[in-house]
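Annotators were shown the component list below and the corresponding predicted structure, then asked to write short factual statements about the assembly.
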Amino acid sequence: MAQAAQLPIISHYTAYKPRPFTREERDTTTILYGGLTWKHERLMQGALHNLKYNAEPLPNIAREDLDAGKELIDVGACCPTIFTTGSLVNFLKKEVKEHGKDEVNRKFVYLTAGACGPCRFGQYHESYAMALDGLGLRDFRLFLLAQDELDQGPGNGGGLDINMPMSLGLIWSILCGDLVTDLEYLTRPYEVNPGQTELVLRECVEQMYDVFLHRPDHGKKLRTLAWHLLSNYFTSALRDVRKKWDQIEVDHLRVKAKVKITGEFWLQTHEGEGNYNIKRWLEQEDSEVVPPPVAVWLHYLLHPTIRKLEHRNSASKHPKAETLALHALERVYRGTYNRFRKALANLPHELPDQEELRRLAEPFYHFELRGGEGHMLIGKALHSYHHKTAHMICELSPYSCMPNTMSIGSMANVIGKYPDLLYAPIEVKGDAEVHALSRCQMILTEAKKRAQAEFEGVMEKTGLSVERIRKYEAKHPELRKATYFVPHRGCAGTAANYVMHLAYDRGLARA
Ligand code: SF4
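Structure shown to annotators:
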């Protein structure tokens, strides 16, 4: 009898599935995380330490992370995926070298945000899994934190309990991280004593770390939600930050080009080599940077659900009740952010109205085109243009990012309609710094000219002189404090708004 032909052995693809992380392992295991600024990450660490987790942010992204990521993940991945994967890879390589694979698999887990949708953010974990395969660390555990559920419960072994205290602690630490970052960028370009902002900032972040570390326990459900929303625990801590900020002396008469940063979520938030340190570079080039708060992104995430309900595309049995609940949630969210801003003398910027962003972007980019920041890139640029909150927009676009490529295409249409909108789309690949910065500089030169012309225009209009303002400041030292609120008086630049404010709100033009 003829022998049956041997069938080839097929090895099917199996998706990465982490080993359980048990409750008993919690004390000996460190949760790794990253992707935001050092300020956000330190405050998040406070929130996690408060819940008795060992938690460590990964070191800030470095240029070598790009190479490490490129070696191990798919060709054509977007640059944030490459950088963040490379950062985890380099950290693990170092640990493996020192302690061996088994110890690394035992000692660490990685926690990252998860999502689904058309951009690669929904597949970051696949890239991480691919890199772990490449490193021979298939047993290393990584877990996803869904962005749309506050109470996901103890999953996969119970070592990680993603419950209300954890989610609220992380969200509140992100909001506070945003607010101190905003203060930092509003102040540093005007500081009289170089380095003072940085020193006070570090002190404030440590103080806020302690605040998160000692956050009182109010149970795991609604009582903790109510406490986070109603307590003055965080606002009084932010008032202490404000007192510390008072020590910084500033000179608001310095004429700076105001540059609003927009772009892909990770790239615009990051501070470091992942985006060529562009925010620091812009400050060195005599600009004031308007950084993008993570809070805007969290706010944006609420809206697709609201839209679905409004357009009856939702499977909900009670769409009206759910719409009302979501609108109430949105009001509470903005209200909380504003309460925190108030504790900081209203210095940090307000969150933009998501409805307005959608309306502004609508003729150019449909709000249902999801992925990346969606229509927000267009909406934010036009918001800043119409409200005169910056002289130029610097959009950080990752190499190989589909959603950003679409928004840059739509921006060509926007510029056709608003030719005086100064817009610098900067493609970031991680290894083409000179090209990117010189491109930004071309637009920045024009922005600086506008800032100077605007300042000269208000000096002429108000009839004030620098000498006169200096004399007035000498009599009113509060004007030189970093906590002095300079209201928006219709100009993009801080110096021009300051002069308008002195002239008309404080009556200096009539004196
Ligand atoms: S928005 Fe672009 S850069 Fe960001 S994860 Fe998605 S594809 Fe990558």
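Statements collected:
1. The first strand starts at residue 30 and ends at 33.
2. The chain is about 55% helix and 10% strand.
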